[in-house]
């Protein structure tokens, strides 16, 4: 993901360890644009390590069941300026319980934001809806609501609840 210029400065200023911490995050915001250039922004979260650095130019993360709109992933699929691969047989799929598919992004440039003005927040509790290998993910209340129940995908676990 980093070129020789980035790495040389990281080494010069001893920041390589910080730059390599991507896989430790438990959330990020993604801002794709649709084919007409209209941007959107959404939150993606999971257990620490849900974002993987696959190689020097590729990151990957799972797409979990959401509200069924696929706005972010649909934009990524249609925007030719984003390098990615959708593959339901991705080798990483087995590493993420309940992931629908894996998103791979070919990284061309990285522009870390200066965190100076980002307000400090504390993690109060991880969402109980983040899929885990050792327990069944609970059904969110919105999927039980009358307006949504009959429109859920056929294989949605909420249909059984």
Mean pLDDT: 82
The tally of helices reads 5
| Major beta sheet, strand line-up | 3-4-6-5
Topology pattern, helix = H, strand = E: HHEEEEHEEHH
Quick one: how many beta strands?
Answer: 6
CATH class: Mainly Beta
Describe the protein in words:
This protein is of the alpha+beta class and 161 residues long. The protein has a single domain (4-117), classed as Pnp Oxidase, Chain A, CATH 2.30.110. It contains five helices and six strands, in the order H-H-E-E-E-E-H-E-E-H-H. Strand 3 (52-55) and strand 4 form a beta hairpin.
Describe the secondary structure blueprint for this structure:
Elements (H helix, E strand, L loop, with lengths): L3 H9 L3 H4 L7 E4 L11 E4 L6 E4 L2 E6 L7 H8 L4 E5 L13 E6 L34 H4 L1 H4 L12
Antiparallel strand pairs: 1-2, 3-4, 4-6, 5-6
């Amino acid at each position: 993901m980093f070129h020789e210029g980035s790495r040389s400065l990281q080494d010069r200023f001893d920041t390589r360890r910080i730059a390599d911490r991507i896989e430790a995050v438990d959330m990020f915001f993604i801002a794709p644009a649709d084919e007409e250039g209209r941007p959107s922004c959404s939150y993606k979260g999971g257990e620490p390590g849900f974002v993987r650095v696959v190689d020097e130019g590729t990151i990957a993360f799972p797409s979990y069941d959401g509200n069924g709109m696929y706005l972010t992933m649909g934009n990524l699929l249609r925007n030719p300026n984003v390098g990615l691969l959708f593959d339901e047989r991705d080798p990483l799929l087995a590493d993420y319980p309940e992931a629908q598919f894996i998103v791979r992004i070919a990284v061309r440039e990285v522009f870390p934001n200066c965190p100076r003005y980002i307000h400090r927040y504390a993690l109060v509790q991880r969402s109980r809806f983040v899929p885990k290998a050792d327990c069944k993910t609970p059904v969110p209340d919105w999927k039980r609501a009358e307006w949504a129940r009959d429109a859920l995908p056929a294989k949605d676990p909420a249909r059984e609840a």
